[in-house]
């Protein structure tokens, strides 16, 4: 399977401007084939006329280069030895690695590897990228070639399709099921870091949204379910951008005069899942974000996601013109959207769950198979945040949460459900921050 | 067991001014002893010189009175015949009833009964009652003698103890465990009606609250639980009524400057549970309300509870100076309170769950053994409300909820947990009300 | 409220044979009125010609008696002082107690108390009591007068009504809702002990059972609920005691030849809940047992329940001719039953959940608001048992449970649901018991 | 992405013996590229000297062939028209398809497609395949090339690795995380059918298993979690195949003499998920089966899984020497295994959940994010089975389940948990089967 990935990455290299490379000097993205499963790791090489030193996935390496032939050895923090030997052709390396066997300390295993040279940026100033997507992903996958490489501080102005794959002109551009724009490769982001994504702009770019008159099973009592056979019909909503409201295009009598304020939100925002995870459906969620469908992710919010792959690989899509808590109708007011976001990388920060920060609040999104477990996850994540950024003890966290937490239901429509724990910054400001 | 109740009620009669009674004319509260279980029902008699007619628990009666000896027959809506024979002594009746057997249509069973005459009000204008409680109840019980009889439209100004039984002067006045002021007997309220309780005033009347540095089990992940042994210590909070904030009296370093806005709420509000239910602990909740611990029940809110006993029997207590969602610290900021409320009776209205109405929102409180089931209950209750008051179809409810519902976690600290479904009145106002 | 209880207990005294008492010597059951809430505690007095010593609820007392006037002082393990002064009339004492205030260490509070002398047994041999019930309880209440006082080792042969209150002759004898036989006062059982109830005999005593064609909400997906409006009809089953099978009396075509093996079980078995708990409906469950509806409680099983009141106060009822796991039809095959049980008291044993022991298995019943929480409770309870009786470490418990536990769903029909964790004795026998 | 798949399938074609093909006659597996998402469908062509007819994914086609150039049109059951034009090179076709747009009835979209000719079997007798795996899959993927094509009635004798990727000789052969043997392509199996997999033989082939002394979070109360930091250590068990028992190799004192009966089971058994699903981790479960970790899947059992892709694509792996209910230790007694299974296809049968049939019982496995939801799914699935195979009404199902169902916890260790609903065949035999 790694063959495919090499192909994809070689293709992608062609699209990206590279600085002139001297020997093996530079940053590389290494793909190792572990019994058919590609593992991605970053390799930084300093090539001193053939004497190689550097860092491979956080561990030191030494080796040498003879023309296009390289060999180097990496020593893990536990003393394990990883040996690589390969051939370089300008911006690519292919070869074989010799790894210790995870199950038997005294045995070793050979794995093919390849590497592509990562681009260097021209200048240090943050850039604003205008990105027009041409294809879309129906998986949050670590294997998909990046559509654009960006740097911390950069912003991207782009668009998203609606959940059915339809663009701002009403044309189908991708397969239904929340097709995503991306992935964006963020230089410097590595597993263990946090990617901060600031939603600078999130605006409607068409005048209708598609929804259903459904109630998800999780919102239905058996008494309601007994009468629910009539539900599930499509409902098209008019989006009146001038007045800032939405209403059904052809309402039934009871909703003839209904008018609901628009409140655009981004349903899907994710980084690629880590090694050992299969690609994830764009309908699913996890610690990496995903189809969170949380109406707190709106213009002005910053979302923090734990990075699990080199470059983070950021995906976004499935925007809603507005949505009640939980997306109880299974489809919210699904529409295409104009989006501008910027990225930053917070190094070496543990994050048990996605975080969202607005002007007014800190929020942690717990996601699990039941609301009960999701609330536990949200609370744990908020405790983690308070301990990391405010230096509070567990007792102090308990007092603060007990007096001040807000819990809202974020999502009921997916395989996992979500609960967001929120704290007002106005209360947090009365604390003396750990670093202030 | 009925003996006890007669005693209690006879005692209570002494405290209430009665209008002059002529024969058996008037409203009576009947207690029937069903194999040791008292059943309470209202009896309205018109006594035309010994010819009796009227209504017993909604069903017509006919009979006669000969001096102090009465007998009458009630015909149920299913044709079942209930015969009563008793002796009247001014404002009390005792006797025996002959009932059909619920398990065997052709058999009958004898049950002792007693009745007390219900008071008549002097004049029709709503009254404001100043009520100083002298004892408190640790059960939401249908068996407890009323502390005061009031009429729809009346208001009551009174006080509540904190959850530990301590009053505004710091004196223990009742057993810990949310002791309640009440019950108040609301004339005219009968099973199937709804009692509307408007919280006209809810004000702190002392300068401290007691809490814990706990996290309830439902809020703890196993990772947090592994470090939670240190928790559970008492924390006294200062209530600064002038500045409108609360802060720990002797804070640990991380909370040295913490200051949280006061937001008084009433944790306990209940009507008596119906026939067939045991008295309920004041720590528990149900369709009847109870220890809901929902921070949406504050000054200005109206709470709607389904009546299950004649007179509703309203209890209130366990106020909090403020509380995060869910009362995650097990004890909120527990304090005594000054309360003024008024009552109204909405006849014949089905209510699957407690409702709360604020200036801004309609709220339904779902309560169950898991958040997942509580959310189902809250949603069902909101659908019921929309169908009753706005005449919406289920499809229209689904659209309105899908676009506009808010879900918050109300309570995590009890045997049942609570989720509140909320809708903004600003959205509902764009609908044409069913009756408007 | 304590008045009522005194009345009940005085009545009950009349029914029980007492040994000749000398002064205040002997065992007493004390009822203290804590702001209207009766607290029950055992008092053992040695009266040496007016010099009193002894034990009150585990704490030492000293005092004196002058004729019928007694006064004594109890010193709690935390040094708190409790003073009692009262008047004895043969087998009863009434008076006042002076207690420290739980909220303010420097304040004290006065509480009325009364006491009744507990009976002494004639001889030491275990007795078999033939008990014919005359009334039944619809609450698991600590306040109800015992129907019989028994001693550890004794057995009782009696009967139970079906859940609708109908006896073996088809006559209604009590109110529907699982009316219980009892409570039985077990001499010597005190809070902190465990009551072991061995079901020596559990036999059908009539030829029919009543059930429903229902599915409880907890067993219904929304898809099934959509078609469930037809359900809820009564189904009478014939109990063929000779062939040992049950079948619907008037089956629909698909069940025309259905025949299910009889397997009598006891749905309700409880001790009284502890101080601070309201009486509990006989439809509810808890750590004290209750309406567990677990089909593992059958002839030959021993049930272990944690004692929370002096005398334990054992209730039993609601037997089923047979029942699938979970009692999904809301009513199992409800019938009257002939029961013989013996009791034993295991002193000072902590029990987080009800335990059941059969010839083949140890079982712990977790009960909670969701199956997820019930499973946690069952597992904790099994770990507790293994640690107490087999001296295992938590790591060893994890290995044993991981390789050998069985989990079955016990109950789905109540407010709480139940999961039983089971271990085979055949596996446990390969361990060396802690005491063996 | 479809390019990759073509490559894989072309490679796989080389490994499979084909019958001589005449023109386009035969069965084809078509891969259509829907905006980067491969869709697999079966195509059966009758080529009458260039006049093409046949069936594409259940719908009729007509067209013609001119040399190696084909074109044909498929008419969907809703009247939609699908046009294909391509070029044949012996056993492969490539070309383009013209499809209606799902979002806009009046628009159409072009999609590349390819096809590979499916093999024909030599002779009709069921075959027994000896299959030695050489690589393993860490995903239940619809995209992976089949390792073997088999026919209904065939059996396969093969081996599985342990969950860590280690074989019977102790050698690491694949990446950890339940690597699977397979997929096996079952000719004739199509979406909507059911694949019946009979476990004819399931035998240990080495003398040790690896486990942990863990408790999964779902089994831990907060009280247990507070002491669980010590857990999570590896435990190697000896598998004594002669005596049929397992015991820790280096037991701690409390388990020194522990001995648990061996009971081999297959943890992982799956068909590929359907179109629109991402590949699924071999640690996950679904309606397609997966890492069910249910100890009822053992030698002699037949497992029924709903087919979602042409050929079903059967995977198996992750066998356990034995396992308590729920796999509470996260790792059961993980070991390699010798397996023989046979397959059958039941056409057009709806299956809401995996089914298992043993000699004694019918079982349905409900899998969901909470035990509460898993039980609902298991019950629904059992009702579906009873309605399909026994012709029962919902009322009859309710009676049968209420009197006779068993519920056990199957799995607690994955993202979803499992509950199995079981009915004894001895009870079902008293019913007259629908077809009997």
Topology, pairings included?
Four copies of one chain form a homotetramer.
Chain A: H1 2-14, E1 26-34, E2 37-48, E3 51-56, E4 59-66, E5 69-75, E6 81-89, E7 92-100, E8 108-117, E9 128-130, E10 139-140, E11 148-150, E12 155-160, E13 180-186, E14 194-204, E15 208-212, H2 222-225, E16 234-240, E17 245-248, E18 260-261, E19 265-271, E20 280-281, E21 285-286, E22 289-290, E23 302-306, E24 314-320, E25 337-346, E26 355-357, E27 361-368, H3 371-390, H4 394-404, E28 406-411, E29 417-424, H5 425-428
Parallel strand pairs in A: 9-12, 11-13
Antiparallel strand pairs in A: 1-2, 1-8, 2-3, 3-4, 4-5, 5-6, 6-7, 7-8, 10-20, 12-25, 13-24, 14-23, 14-25, 15-16, 16-17, 17-18, 19-22, 19-24, 21-22, 23-26, 26-27, 27-29, 28-29
Write up this protein.
Four copies of one chain form a homotetramer. With 436 residues, chain A is mainly beta. Chain A has three domains: 17-117, Quinohemoprotein amine dehydrogenase alpha subunit, domain 2 (Lipocalin); 128-300 and 307-348, Jelly Rolls (Sandwich); 352-436, Acetamidase/Formamidase-like domains (Endonuclease I-creI), CATH 3.10.28.20. Chain A is built from five helices and 29 strands. The radius of gyration of chain A is 24 Å and the shape is globular. At the A-B interface, β18, α3, α4 and β28 of A face β18, α3, α4 and β28 of B.
């Amino acid at each position: 399977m790694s063959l495919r990935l090499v192909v994809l990455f070689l293709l992608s290299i062609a699209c990206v401007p590279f600085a002139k490379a001297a020997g093996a000097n530079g940053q590389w993205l290494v793909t190792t084939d572990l019994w058919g499963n590609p593992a991605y790791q970053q390799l930084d090489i300093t090539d001193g006329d053939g004497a190689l030193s550097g860092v491979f996935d956080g561990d030191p390496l030494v080796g040498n280069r003879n023309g296009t032939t390289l060999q180097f050895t990496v020593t893990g923090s536990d003393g394990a030895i990883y040996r690589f030997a390969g051939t370089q052709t300008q911006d690519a390396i292919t070869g074989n690695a010799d790894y210790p066997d995870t199950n038997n300390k005294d045995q070793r295993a050979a794995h093919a590897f390849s590497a592509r040279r990562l681009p260097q940026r021209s200048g240090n100033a943050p850039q604003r990228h205008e990105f027009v997507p041409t294809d879309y992903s129906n998986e949050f996958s670590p294997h998909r070639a990046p559509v654009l490489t960006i740097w911390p501080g950069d912003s991207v102005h782009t668009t998203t399709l609606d959940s059915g794959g339809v663009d701002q002109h009403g044309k189908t551009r991708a397969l239904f099921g929340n097709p995503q724009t991306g992935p964006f490769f963020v230089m410097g982001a590595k597993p263990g870091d946090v990617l901060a994504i600031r939603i600078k702009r999130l605006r409607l770019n068409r005048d209708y949204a598609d929804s259903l008159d459904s109630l998800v099973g999780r919102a239905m009592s058996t008494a309601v379910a007994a009468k629910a056979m009539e539900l599930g019909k499509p409902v098209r909503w008019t989006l009146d951008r001038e007045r800032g409201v939405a209403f059904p295009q052809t309402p039934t009598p009871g909703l003839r005069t209904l008018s609901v304020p628009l409140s655009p939100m981004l349903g899907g925002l994710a980084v690629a899942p880590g090694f050992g995870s299969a690609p994830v459906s764009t309908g699913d969620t996890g610690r990496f974000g995903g189809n969170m469908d949380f109406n707190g992710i709106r213009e002005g919010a910053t979302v923090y996601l734990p990075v699990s792959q080199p470059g983070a690989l950021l995906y976004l899509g499935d925007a809603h013109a507005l949505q009640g808590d939980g997306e109880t109708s299974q489809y919210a007011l699904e529409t295409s959207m104009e989006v501008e976001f910027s990225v930053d990388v917070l190094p070496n920060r543990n994050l048990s769950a996605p975080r969202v920060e607005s002007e007014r609040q800190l929020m942690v999104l717990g996601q699990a198979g039941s609301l009960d477990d999701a609330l536990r996850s949200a609370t744990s994540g908020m405790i983690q945040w308070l301990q990391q950024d405010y230096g509070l003890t567990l007792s102090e966290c308990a007092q603060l949460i007990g007096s001040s937490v807000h819990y809202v239901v974020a999502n009921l429509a997916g395989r996992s459900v979500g609960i967001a724990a929120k704290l007002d910054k106005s209360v947090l400001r009365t604390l003396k921050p750990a670093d202030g």
